[in-house]
Amino acid sequence: MIWNEKMECATRDEMKAIQSERLVETVKRIYHNVAYYRDKMQQAGLTPFDIEGVEDLHKLPFTTKSDLRDNYPFGLFTVPMSEIVRLHASSGTTGKPTVVGYTRKDINMWSEVVTRSLCMAGVHKNDIVQIAYGYGLFTGGLGIHYGTENLGASVIPISGGNTQKQIQLMQDFNSSVLCCTPSYALYISDVLNEAGIDPETLNLRVGIFGAEPWSEAMRKEIERKLKLRAIDIYGLSEIVGPGVSCECEYQQGMHVHEDHFIPEIIDPVTLEPVADGEVGELVFSTITKEGIPLLRYRTRDLTRLIYDKCSCGRTLVRMEKCKGRSDDMLIIRGVNVFPSQIETVLLEMSETEPHYLLIVDRENTLDTLSLMVEVQEQFFSDEVRKLQDLRKQITHKLESTLGLTVDVKLVEPKTIERTAGKAKRVIDKRNI
Ligand SMILES: [Zn+2]
Question: Is 155 in contact with 145 (CB distance < 8 Å)?
Answer without folding.
Answer: yes
